[in-house]
Amino acid sequence: MGCSLKPPSTAKFAVKCSENPVGILRTCKNCKTQFDPALNHPLACRFHTAHFGGETKRKFESVYSGGTMNTPNSGQVFQYWHCCGSEDPFDPGCTSAPHSSYEEED
Fold it and tell me: What are the tens digits of pLDDT across the range 48-77?
């Protein structure tokens, strides 16, 4: 087993240890982090399903809020994740799923 720490008998939490004694890690196709397949779970990975890029403010508002050609500062470039509209380039992701490795077959 990969863990030797035992929680006290009064503990109100569970510690799951990898049963992989070699410690083989895989790289996730979606979030690009390394993970232990034995500890993978349905919410382990956070990622975006589309790219981060820019549109003019006019285009963004016409798609998301009905903007028109008269939108103030319409030529300003607005950068966002195209899947969820988040403006934060470091947003961890709008989608959760189990990690998916390059070694797995689809």
Answer: 999 999 887 666 666 666 655 566 666 778
CA–CA dist 75, 77 (Å, integer): 6
Tell me, what DSSP letter sits at residue 70?
T
Structure tokens at 15: 């510690």
Which residue, among 69, 48, 49, 47, has the nearest Cα to 57 in the 3D structure?
69
Output the pLDDT for position 17.
60
Question: In this structure, what token pair is assigned to residue 64?
Answer: 């998301």
Q: Which two tokens stand for residue 95?
A: 């989608």
Q: Which residue has the higher pLDDT, 24 or 71?
A: 24
Question: CA angle 77-79-83, nearest 5°?
Answer: 135
Closest CA to 57 of 40, 38, 73, 80: 73
